[in-house]
Amino acid sequence: MADQSTKKRIAIFGSTGSIGTQALEVIRANADLFEVEILTAQTNDELLITQALEYKPNAVVIGDDGRYQKVKEALSSTDIKVFAGEAALEEVAEFDTYDMMLAGIVGFAGLKPTLKAVEKGKAVGLANKETLVVAGDIVMQKAIEKRVPVIPVDSEHSAIFQCLIGEARNPIEKIILTASGGPFLGKKPNFLVNVKRDHALQHPNWSMGAKISIDSATLMNKGLEMIEAKWLFNLRPDQIEVVIHPQSIIHSMVQFEDGSIKAQMGLPDMKLPIQYAMAFPGRIKNDFPRLNFKKYPALNFEEPDVKTFRNLALAMEALNKAGNMPCVLNAANEIAVWAFLRNRIGFLDMTALVEKTMENVTFIEKPTLQEYFESDAEARNFAASLINL
Ligand code: NAD
Ligand code: MG
Questions:
Q1: 225/315 Cα distance (integer angstroms)
Q2: Ligand located closest to 21 CA
Q3: Which ligand is nearest to the CA of 222?
């Protein structure tokens, strides 16, 4: 058993979310390998307090300032440091006292703290795909400069990462990202136009946070993942293929120059890619249910229907156009999903909103970090104005 000093100290950003809570389960089951150094949450103060009392981190951040007093008082009998507000996320990301950031914040909000961790030379287990969608060039360049491993947590990218072990000298011909197709696979616009939030939140294979569940229903998630893959694995857009695979058993594949394809498989369970990223380069024994092929007599594959699920086509357009276009796509999509979750716009309106925003925001070919922030703000304002938010 490892002693105290050799445990990997994990900073979980977004600890109250779907990824964050599963990461804590992995830590609980492997207390000899990991300890919690930082926990952060935006609004769920109750859960943050419970987590802090169990895992005894050095510091916690509650994003919403108004909840600071409550968290501070609840933890007053401990020596856990309590911070609040957006800027505090960046401050704690700069701490020397952790080894790896588990980036589990959802959306653009994850970018600044994750970039701080990379600048500080910290390993990152990356769930927050929006960080790479928005500013993948800057984040990966910094990671190379600082020799920081960015280990994907997203299941498809974890699959590709695992397929690439031992293949450093072998060029990739293409990657094949699998997509479940979401809850509306096979449906047409006349059905989608009436889809409501609660139905869209029900994913057939995965239980996830609200935003990514909606992104999975619209296929925007797969588009964001194409852009994420471009930066993680240094690929051209034409090397990234999407195939619908409703069983979610093959998590993704890599095809090499000799035509050989490697796949990584397993039951759909995010704890696996989470623990893989935390333990990399090792693997940890666990008691998760095992895949029984006899229960899956057929694995199916089909072309994505980008005429119906136009968000995927828009994301491919942004991937090809590059520059600030993925950042604009992401910002408009965050507004669209936010509005859809509050029943302010319909399912198909989300696509229209993203498309119009992409047409209107100023294109920048090689943005600076500051210009990414400005593009994000411009796109949000434009998208919000279209729906009178
Ligand atoms: P979630 O909504 O369940 O949790 C989000 C977490 O981020 C919460 O802890 C919340 O407090 C925090 N947060 C939300 N807004 C914030 C803000 N403005 N500032 C700071 N913190 C904020 O989301 P999730 O499903 O866990 O997803 C997290 C990330 O992981 C997303 O980028 C998602 O795309 C990615 N991801 C998730 C899954 C999954 O199975 N859930 C799979 C692959 C990738
Ligand atoms: Mg994924």
A1: 9
A2: 1
A3: 2
Find the helix or strand (DSSP H, E) in which 190 lies.
helix 189-192
Residue 367, preceding peptide bond in cis (omega within 30° of 0): no
Q: What is the pLDDT of residue 41?
A: 98
Q: Which of 154, 212, 214, 267 to mutate to test the pocket of ligand 1 (most atoms within 8 A of CB)?
A: 212
The encoded tokens of residue 220 equal 């925007």
Kindly give, in sequence order, each residue whose CB lies less than 8 Å from that of residue 109, ignoring residues fewer than 6 positions away. 42, 63, 86
Give the DSSP letter of residue 7: S
Whole-number Å distance between alpha carbons of 159 and 264? 5
**Which pair of tokens denotes residue 389?**
């938010």
Tokens 């779907």, residue? 18
> Tens digit of pLDDT for each residue in 227-239?
999 999 999 999 9
The number of C-alpha atoms within 13 Å of 256 and in the hemisphere containing its C-beta is 14
Closest CA to 40 of 276, 28, 23: 23
Asked whether residue 2 carries a pLDDT value surpassing 60, the answer given is no
Residues lying with their CB under 5 A of ligand 2, a single-atom ion: 154-156
Cβ neighbors of 13 (< 8 A, separation 6 or more) are 20, 38, 40, 89, 93, 101, 102, 103, 104, 105, 110, 113, 114, 128
d(CA 318, CA 316): 5
User: What lines the ligand 1 site, CB under 6 Å?
Assistant: 14-20, 41-42, 44, 63, 104-106, 109, 127-130, 154, 206, 208-212, 270
Answer yes or no: are the C-beta atoms of 278 and 34 closer than 8 Å: yes
Least confident of 4-18, 25-39, 65-79, 126-140: 4-18
209 C-alpha vs ligand 1 centroid, how far in Å? 6
Contacts of 308 (CB under 8 A, 6+ apart): 187, 188, 189, 192
**Start-to-end CA span in the chain (Å):** 55
What domains can you pick out in the chain, each with its CATH number?
4-152 (3.40.50.720), 167-265+290-321 (no CATH)
Please check whether residue 233 is in contact with residue 170, taking contact to mean a CB–CB distance below 8 angstroms.
Answer: no
